[in-house]
Design goal:
The protein is 42% helix and 18% strand. The chain contains twelve helices and eleven strands. Strand 7, helix 8 and strand 8 form a beta-alpha-beta unit.
């Protein structure tokens, strides 16, 4: 069993018990992308529909000794067409999960968010990293470190609610949200502190629901109750968060990658706010990370009412 398998064992187990759901996979034309899809089938958590140029897919499958006859495949001319077709499978109700294969995130997400033919909802789409760090007692959810570059307050409200909804789907009834900044006091010149204060008040007024919010919090006093105590911070979140809401994509991306590469954290990645959960991992991520992400997506999809294909 690999590190990621062990880290996400409880989530994998739950997904396996619920059984496989159809998953459209856009352009699984790299070793890790194809293995991630195949392993999800072998674990019984997804039924992959592989959308890719058939010649390229067959060549890769032969190299990896994978029997493609076990899977439904759809031939397309190139990666962009793969994204378009995979999104169409979701839109028409034939797939309950969408997975990005070996294509650029921008190319993939442009089809997801297309005004006509996309699968957006009224909610802002955002990404959540689910990370298991050995020095922390439970999962950490970091958002948004992959899609929204410089979110404004309205976008942060949706980013926050998306992460809360993900926690609920994974059985965390009342997650604690630490809204991060460089400092823990309000500074009008530092927009992230103003946003943090506003988000907390939005939660008080029911504009964000299902969680306990606090911020602004610097990373040290968000994660360490000792650091919070030293600074005299009295908070139900400080030292005990489930969700770390970052100020912008740059800070979030650096934080997530630091945990992966310096603290050997295992990570899964999911996109929330679309009509179905989307498995969105880096092209550098291994198949174990993709498998864990698919398990998370499966738990989310099982929690939604089943949509029949449109006629």
């Amino acid at each position: 069993m690999t590190h990621d398998d062990q880290a996400f064992a409880d989530i994998l187990q739950q997904a396996e018990l619920l059984g496989p759901l159809p998953m459209a996979v856009a352009h699984p034309c790299s070793r890790e992308a194809l293995l991630g899809a195949v392993e999800s089938a072998e674990h019984g958590i997804a039924r992959p529909i592989l959308v890719a140029p058939q010649a390229k897919l067959k060549k890769l499958a032969e190299e990896l000794a994978i029997d493609l006859s076990r899977f439904e495949t759809i031939d397309v001319p190139h990666s962009h067409a793969a994204a378009e077709q995979a999104v169409a499978l979701v839109r028409d109700g034939y797939a309950d999960i969408l997975m990005k294969g070996s294509l650029h995130t921008d190319e993939f997400m442009s089809e997801v968010t297309a005004r006509s033919g996309g699968i957006r909802t009224e909610r802002r789409i955002s990404h959540v990293f689910i990370m298991k760090v050995e020095s922390y007692p439970r999962y950490l959810f970091i958002t948004d470190a992959a899609i929204n570059i410089e979110p404004d307050l309205t976008a942060k409200r949706d980013i926050c609610q998306n992460a809360i909804d993900l926690c609920h789907a994974l059985g965390i009834a009342r997650p604690k949200v630490a809204i991060l900044s460089a400092v823990e006091t309000i500074n009008p010149e530092l927009r992230s502190t103003i946003d943090a204060a506003a988000l907390c008040k939005m939660a008080d007024r029911g504009q964000i629901t299902g969680a306990i919010l606090d911020g602004p919090l610097a990373f040290d006093n968000a994660i360490s109750s000792e650091a919070a105590k030293t600074k005299g911070i009295v908070s139900p979140v400080a030292g005990d968060p489930d969700i770390l809401l970052v100020p912008d994509l740059e800070s979030g991306n650096m934080l997530a990658k630091q945990l992966s590469y310096l603290a050997a954290a295992a990570s899964a990645g999911i996109v929330m706010g679309a009509r179905v959960p989307i498995v969105l991992t880096s092209r550098a991520d291994d198949s174990d990370g993709r498998l864990a992400s698919t398990a998370v997506a499966s738990l989310l999809a099982h929690g939604k009412p089943r949509r029949e294909p449109l006629t």
